[in-house]
Amino acid sequence: MKTNRKFTILRLLVLALVLAGFDAKAASGPALLGKFTLASVTRWGRATLPAGDYSFALDKDYPGSVVTVFRGKQSVARIQTPGISYIKSGRSEIVTENGAVLEMNLPTIGVSLHYPAHNPRQREGTPEPQLAQIIPVTTAAAGR
Fold first, then answer.
1. Is residue 13 part of a domain?
2. pTM for the structure as a whole
């Protein structure tokens, strides 16, 4: 009976260590830190960010990542990334259209994060022109 109990405890400990190892990359700190400036009110996911200076931390560089946006030292938004593609070159930048973030290109870590276009309720009348903007991003490798 004691041998069976010890074996069960040992299996649980091994399982806990294996599960902890799967989350080791996420627990090691952000994949990337950076800064950007918004010239006007911008929607990013469900967040609405007023014009101003921001910093961000990307938690991981693979699908399902979360971008945490800071204004000063205060976290103002956590944005889930629904889409990602891998890139090899280009500029670090945020691409917006009609005041909404569509993608964040981060070639320093080889990824482009994609976000769905903001789709406000359709209004009748003359369609508004499509206004696109590219916002430079300054990045710094995060300590891992």
1. no
2. 0.70
